[in-house]
Design goal:
The complex is a heterodimer of chains A (114) and B (114). In chain A, 0% of the residues lie in helices and 51% in strands. Chain A has no helices and 11 strands. In chain A, the strands form 2 sheets. In chain A, strands 2, 4, 5, 6, 9, 10 and 11 form a 7-stranded mixed beta sheet that branches. A 4-stranded antiparallel beta sheet of chain A has the order 1-3-8-7, with no helix packed on it. Chain B has 114 residues and is an all-beta fold. The chains are: A mainly beta (114), B mainly beta (114).
């Protein structure tokens, strides 16, 4: 089945130690998104790629970076994780950014910062 | 800025009964989409139902239907004949234009009692 895959499902890192989260998709979608979902809060968009074009949300901290080496893969890099970065990170894809375009989500990676 | 409000952090329903989850939003746009997403425990978020603002007819998907009141900026989800598998976190979301990103509410945790 076509899907969005996130690895690992659970990630533990130390304060200040860089960490990379991975997302892959078999849907051949043009757009890939990264959302941050803290406990009991709404998912919040960090950034998205439309093909190779990177679109950063205005309030996304510089500590968060992303790479999309090809259509299938997208990475979230947290350069110096702080305790406040502990959250569920959701990857999503869509064919386009049009209003009607459904976003398909991965299962998420739960990040713990010690 | 657009906001989405879900005023019920938790709801409970008896199996086979009907439950309505509330959502209100704030926007100055005239054309947009509204979505309900379901996030089961430890599983990915999936789209339940969507509604285009220009369509007056309420969307329906099997046991799921919405009550879209554009003037009141209200978009509630009704689940009929509730099943145990409906237990999940439900997120209301808004999307406008070609911006791509979904703006989520904080979610409503639905429990289904056998």
């Amino acid at each position: 089945d076509a899907m969005v895959i996130q690895n690992p499902r659970y990630q533990v890192t130390q304060f200040g130690k860089p960490v990379t989260l991975s997302c892959s998709q078999t849907l051949n979608h043009n757009v890939m998104y990264w959302y941050q979902q803290k406990s009991s809060q709404a998912p919040k968009l960090l950034f998205h790629y439309y093909d190779k074009d990177f679109n950063n949300e205005a309030d996304t901290p510089d500590n968060f970076q992303s790479r999309r080496p090809n259509t299938s893969f997208c990475f979230l890099d947290i350069r110096s994780p702080g305790l406040g970065d502990a959250a569920m990170y959701l990857c999503a894809t869509s064919f386009s950014t049009g209003m009607f375009a459904e976003q398909f989500f991965g299962p998420g990676t739960r990040l713990t910062v010690l | 800025a657009q906001t989405v409000t879900q005023s019920q952090p938790e709801m409970s329903v008896q199996e086979a009964e009907t439950v309505t989850l509330s959502c209100t939003y704030d926007t100055s746009e005239s054309d947009y989409y509204l979505f309900w997403y379901k996030q089961p425990p430890s599983r990915q978020m999936i789209l339940v139902i969507r509604q285009e603002a220009y369509k007056q007819q309420n969307a329906t998907e099997n046991r799921f239907s919405v009550n879209f009141q554009k003037a009141a900026k209200s978009f509630s989800l009704k689940i009929s004949d509730s099943q145990l598998g409906d237990a999940a976190m439900y997120f209301c979301a808004y999307k406008r234009g070609s911006q791509g990103n979904l703006i989520f509410g904080k979610g409503t945790k639905l429990s289904v009692k056998p």
